[in-house]
Amino acid sequence: MADALLQINNLSKRFGGVIASDDITLALPAGELHAIIGPNGAGKTTLIGELTGEITPDSGEIHFDGRDITDLPVWRRSALGLARSFQITSLFPDFTVLDNVALAVQARSGHSFRFWRDACVDPELRDPARAALERVGLAARADVPVANLSHGEHRQLEIAMALATQPRLLLLDEPMAGMGPDESARMVRTLRDLKQEFTILLVEHDMEAVFALADRITVLVYGRVLATGAPAAIRGDEEVRKAYLGAADEVAHHG
Amino acid sequence: MSGYLTPRNIVVALLLLFLTLLPVYAAYTGNVFLMTLFTRIIILAIAATSLNLILGYGGMVSFGHAVYLGVGGYAVGILAHERFISGFLQWPVAIVVSALLALGVGALSLRTRGVYFIMITLAFSQMIYYVAVALDRYGGDDGLTISRRSQFADLLNLGNRTQFYYLCLVLLLATIYFCWRIVNAPFGMVIQGARSNDRRMQAIGFPTFRYRLTCFVIAGGICGLAGALLANHTGFISPAMMHWTRSGDLIVMVVLGGMASIFGPLIGAVTLLVLEEVLPLLIRLLALPFAGEPLASRAAEYWQIVLGPLFLLVVLFARGGINGLLESLRRG
B-chain residues within 8 Å CB-CB of A120? Predict the structure, then answer.
């Protein structure tokens, strides 16, 4: 698939005796919400790390928008439009929500070798930051210090910061981890809205959310792609059932 | 606007007022000692302010910052020795050479973190220290007396104590203003973000290394200027200027005054250096009624026994140093 926004070819990574990525090949066409599921230790977070550039694969290639990004550093991939949400949030815990998002905006507004302008009142940084907060439903909390946010709000801020970097591909690493039912439902609504505009790679343990949102699902087991397909096909896949969905109860404890 | 009348701001305002009026008082009473002491305090406050830029705002614990004091001082001393006495030449050279050294040290050390960063900056400063010791032409271990201060045509006469004092004070205020501007500018946001969470900063698209390196170079350059001032102040340079204990003193000033606060390093420098003068006198005075003359003077030599615990208390109970302590008074 030459026109895929993200093309992963034969990606492999080994940590000592553990194979974290085993010859992964995957293509994400623009506009798709692609979910990656798999039991703990399947190599999902390793894959995200390889995509963002924090982990160097042993072999294989990653192409983003037709460009080989396998050897690019983290910040340059982000500048190309590859945004990642983290499990742990916040740059400045003492600073406000808006300050944090404004920093993400700043990352995309050219270089920051600006020594004289006050960053905390600059509308070029503040306005897009407010817009990103609006998008995830956190606008009312803009002036609250990040340390005072609830867990669910942290996750929303995480998404807002990813949005503020004007991404073309969102890599969301368990955005619903540790959320209550209400917060999860709100996050599903947010993701459904974002799906209209962005290509999303979603790693998530919440099966209900995954099957509700995903266009396609890839099942990862022991670093290997077990199956890729539409939610209905994955649900019906006998091998997937055996390897993973049967153990969903156990997985839910970590969710 | 009562919002400005915080205990911290009042203390800073009084301190600045005191520093501004000191020469008047000194001229009136003929107190040369006070002038000399506070000129030194102001110069070291410039150095501490520059260290705060990387240590406080950037989270880069450089244990070799005094090396730039030394390099700036040696730039002036060596040029003076070779009969280049124009300050218009000496001072830019002091700043540029210090900044270039910081560029080299930073380019290597900023690739490491934590203890390794501390050790590498320390190792570099010790290396330059021994280079200075080996400079036989310029006094080696014994140092070098600078017979003529930097010349600024008819603009300034650094031989005039009052003129030199005010020049240092203006440069200190300029340094503080400069640092205040850049830490609140987009550049400063990147520096502070990298201190807080470097990995995250890279993930949102900042090549943090080059920003941190730039900050390191700026701090080195400013400290080099402080070194040029110090050499003019003492009329003497020696490797001791950049001994690692001097780097430690600068760290103490920053931590004592308050890391990542604009006036913290100035407060810290004043506190530390005034205590250095006052504590021995105080101890001697207190011990005199009990111990008699020779013993009391001996006791005064151990003034650091008092300073050490004081510093410990500040570090343990006032996370933001004296500046933080003053700010917490306001919150009550």
Answer: 184
Taking CA–CA distances from B205, the nearest residue in chain A reads A75
- Could you give the CA distance from residue B150 to residue B89 in angstroms, rounded to a whole number? 9
Q: Using CA coordinates, name the residue in chain A closest to B202.
A: A75
In 3D space, the residue among B91, B324, B86 whose CA is nearest the CA of residue B230 turns out to be B91
Name which residue leads in pLDDT, B71 or A178: B71
Alpha helices in B185-207 (DSSP H): 186-203
Q: Which class is domain B12-263?
A: mainly alpha
Does the pLDDT value for residue B96 go beyond 80?
yes
Q: Where are the domains of chain B?
A: 12-263
Give the closest-approach CA distance of B68 to chain A in angstroms: 22
A88-102, B70-84, B113-127, B226-240: range with lowest mean pLDDT:
A88-102
Which residues on B lie below 8 Å from A91 (Cβ)?
193, 196-197, 200-201
Across the interface, whether the CB atoms of B203 and A118 are under 8 A apart is answered: no
Shortest Cα distance, chain A CAs vs residue B239, angstroms: 34
DSSP-derived letter for residue A147 is: G
Residue B184: list chain A partners with CB under 8 A.
Answer: 118-120
Tokens standing for residue B278:
């006052």
- Residue ranges, CATH 3.40.50.300, chain A: 1-81+168-178+198-255
B99 Cβ neighbours under 8 A, 6+ residues apart: B217, B218, B220, B221, B224
CA dihedral A15, A19, A23, A29 (to 10 degrees): -80
The ipTM value here is: 0.82
Cα–Cα distance for residue pair B8/B322, rounded to 1 Å: 9
Q: Do B186 and A75 touch (CB under 8 A)?
A: no
Name the nearest CA neighbour of B54 among B196, B256, B195.
B195
Q: State the Cα–Cα distance between residues B265 and B249, nearest whole angstrom.
A: 11
pLDDT by residue (tens digit) across B71-93?
999 999 999 999 999 999 999 99
Residues of chain A found within 8 Å of residue B185, distances taken between Cβ atoms: 114-119
In whole angstroms, how far apart are CA A186 and each of A84, A156, A158? 20, 9, 14
Condensed to tens digits (0 to 9), the pLDDT of residues A32-51 reads 999 999 888 889 989 999 99
CB-based contact A32:A215 (threshold 8 Å): yes
Q: Are strands A169-173 and A199-203 parallel, antiparallel or unpaired?
A: parallel
- Pull the structure tokens for residue A215: 């266009």
Of B189, B322, B194, B307, which Cα lies nearest the Cα of B254?
A: B322
Contact B205 A125 (CB under 8 A): no
Q: Which of B189, B199, B262, B319 to mutate to test the interface with A (most CBs of A within 10 A)?
A: B189
> Which 8-state DSSP code applies to residue A23?
E
CA distance B171 to B176: 9
- pLDDT band per the 50, 70, 90 thresholds, residue A109: confident
User: Nearest CB to B184: which of A79, A92, A120?
Assistant: A120
Q: Do B202 and A114 touch (CB under 8 A)?
A: no
- Quote the pTM value: 0.89
Domain A1-81+168-178+198-255, CATH among 3.40.50.450, 3.30.300.20, 3.40.630.10, 3.40.50.300: 3.40.50.300
**Cβ B265 vs Cβ B254: under 8 Å:** yes
